């Protein structure tokens, strides 16, 4: 991992640590959770949605979401990418916070995790909700003067963890 003193991740980590941005992200996620709950989807906790390779999809998030997530979530139960499929644990390319079929980061998971359900028929409203709340998230960035970047979840986690929160720009970590 490189600890680049000029990395934009310093700014995302710093923004995520401010009370105003923290409150704005929590409020946005709460609004989305309520909108999802109104639609009443069922989650069977199959874990399929987090096995990205098997399910044939990728999770995309914003860099600010990753910074916010990393500042609030406990470390993953196993090192990221550890290959222990025989135990049902995280494989390379899957989310490090999935253990067995369960999400161990449920309360702080990003927008895409909150809106995605594998239940047939839910796709009708998922796309609409996702686009609406992604627009709100973009507006949140603009309102707080935060650079916007949209990137793949697992690769973004690895990139962000190379620049620890609390390492000020200009001072190598
Ligand atoms: S944060 Fe939770 S819901 Fe999202 S991909 Fe990881 S394990 Fe799945």
Structural commentary:
This is YkgJ family cysteine cluster protein. This protein has one domain. It contains seven helices and four strands. The chain has helices at residues 9-16, 19-39, 52-55, 63-72, 111-115, 123-143, 153-161; strands spanning 60-62, 98-99, 102-103, 150-152. A hairpin with a 2-residue loop joins strand 2 and strand 3. The longest helix is centred in the N-terminal third of the chain and has 21 residues, at 19-39. The protein is globular and about 45 Å long. The N and C termini lie close together (11 Å). Bound molecules: iron/sulfur cluster (SF4).
Q: What's the quick description here?
A:
With 173 residues, this protein is mainly alpha-helical.
Write the layout of secondary structure elements.
Blueprint: H1 9-16, H2 19-39, H3 52-55, E1 60-62, H4 63-72, E2 98-99, E3 102-103, H5 111-115, H6 123-143, E4 150-152, H7 153-161
Antiparallel strand pairs: 1-4, 2-3
Bound molecules: iron/sulfur cluster.
Organism: Phycisphaera mikurensis (strain NBRC 102666 / KCTC 22515 / FYK2301M01)
Protein name: YkgJ family cysteine cluster protein
């Amino acid at each position: 991992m490189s600890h680049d003193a000029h990395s934009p991740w310093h700014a995302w980590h710093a923004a995520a640590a401010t009370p105003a941005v923290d409150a704005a992200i929590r409020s946005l996620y709460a609004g989305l959770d309520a909108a999802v709950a109104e639609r009443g989807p069922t989650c069977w906790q199959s874990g399929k949605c987090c096995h990205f390779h098997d399910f044939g999809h990728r999770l995309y998030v914003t860099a600010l979401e990753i910074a916010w997530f990393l500042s609030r979530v406990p470390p993953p139960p196993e090192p990221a990418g550890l290959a222990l499929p025989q135990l049902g644990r995280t494989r390379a390319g899957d989310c490090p916070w999935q253990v067995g079929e369960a999400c161990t980061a449920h309360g702080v998971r990003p927008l895409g995790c909150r809106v995605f359900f594998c239940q047939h028929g839910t796709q009708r409203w998922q796309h609409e909700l996702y686009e609406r709340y992604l627009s709100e998230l973009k507006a949140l960035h603009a309102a707080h003067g935060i650079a916007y970047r949209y990137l793949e979840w697992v690769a973004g986690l690895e990139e962000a963890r190379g620049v620890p929160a609390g390492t000020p720009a200009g001072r190598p970590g």
